[in-house]
Amino acid sequence: MIHEVIAKTLLSSAKRPDPWFGIKYTMNLYRGCQHQCIYCDSRSECYRIENFADVIVKVNAIDLLKKELPRKRVKGTIGTGSMSDPYLPLEATRRLTAQALEVIAEQRFPVHVLTKSDLVLRDLDILRVISRVYAAISFTITTADDELGKKVEPGAPLVSRRFAAMTQLADAGLLTGVLLMPVLPFIEDNPDNITAIVDRAKDCGASYILASFGMTLRDRQRAYYYAQLDRLFPGQRQQYEGQYGNRYLAAVRGATRLKQIFRETCERQGIATHLPFYEPAPLPGSATQPALF
C-alpha cells in the first residue's frame, strides 16, 4: 500500500561526511521499499516501519528541500538511498527524486545517489548538471547472476539492467560505481562471484567498488531473512544459526582471503576501492566562513 505523510523535516546532517559514502546530508523521500530485497536492514525494528511492504511518500518533501537547503551553512554531499531506494517503481510517476535533483542543481549542492534501479537514467541530464559540482551514482550489486538476483532482490531491476545503466552513465562522463554490499554468507561469498562482479563493473565503466563482506542480522530483519531462506534456499537457515547465533554482524566465511581476492582483482582492473569524496566547504555568507579582517 501507498501512504502519504506530511514530514516535519527532510535533511538530516552529520558533523562530517561518513567514511564510506562521503555523505554530509541524508535525504529520504520515501520510507519502505518496493524492491523487497530479502536481506534489507531497514526492516529492523529501530527504523519503526511497521510494514516494510508499504511505501510512505513524503508529499511535502520538495517544499521542505527548498526551505532547508538555502539555510545550510556548509555545502556537503546530499545522499539518497539509505532507507529506501530513490528510484522505486513508484518514482516513475511520483517523480520526487527528479524534482529533488532539480532543487539540488539550482542550489549547486553535490549529490551521491545509491540505487538498484536503471530508472536513474531518466535523470541523466540533471545529474550531468550537478556533476559540475559533484555527482556520484552507485549501484548496489551483490551478484553478477540475474537468476540469483531475482531471488534475493525480487522487486528490483535485473542486475544486467543495472550494469547497462552504469555503462550509459559512465559514457556520459558521470562518476559511477558499485556497492558490493551486503555479501550474503553461504550464498554470494565465493571468489567466482566477487571476481565476476569486478570484471563486469570494469567492462561497464565503473570507477570504484565499495565492498563489505557480510551482512547485518537483527530482530525483524533476521526473522524475515530466515523465512526467505527457508523458502528459497532450504537448509541455509541452519547454517546461519550454527555460524552466527544471535550476533548482529554476520561476516562471510574466509573474509580475509575474499577481501584479498577482491583487492587484487580491482587492482588488476584499475578500479578504486574507495570513493573520491566532495570536500565540504562553508557557503558564502555563512557563520562558519572566516572573517576577512
Q: How would you portray this structure in words?
A:
This protein has a single domain (3-277), classed as TIM Barrel. The strands form 4 sheets. It has a 7-stranded mixed sheet, with helices on one face. It is an alpha/beta fold and 293 residues long. The N and C termini lie far apart (58 Å). 35% of the residues lie in helices and 17% in strands. Helix 1 runs parallel beside helix 3 (96-107) and helix 7 runs parallel beside helix 10 (255-269). The chain is globular. The relative contact order is 0.14. Strand 8, helix 4 and strand 9 form a beta-alpha-beta unit. The protein has 10 helices and 14 strands.
Q: Supply the number of structural domains.
A: 1
> In the CATH scheme, what's the topology name?
TIM Barrel
What's the end-to-end separation, in Å? 58 Å
Low-confidence stretches: 287-293
Number of strands: 14
CATH-wise, what's the superfamily?
Answer: Aldolase class I
What structural class should be given to the helix and strand makeup?
alpha/beta
* Assembly level: single chain
Q: Strand count, sense and closure of the main sheet?
A: 7 strands, mixed
How large is the radius of gyration?
19 Å
Helix content: 25-40%
Question: Hey, roughly how much beta strand do the residues contain?
Answer: 15-25%
The run of helices and strands is EEEEEHEEHHEHEHHEHEEHHEHE
CATH class: Alpha Beta
What is the architecture at the second tier of CATH?
Answer: Alpha-Beta Barrel
- On the 0-100 scale, what is the average pLDDT? 93
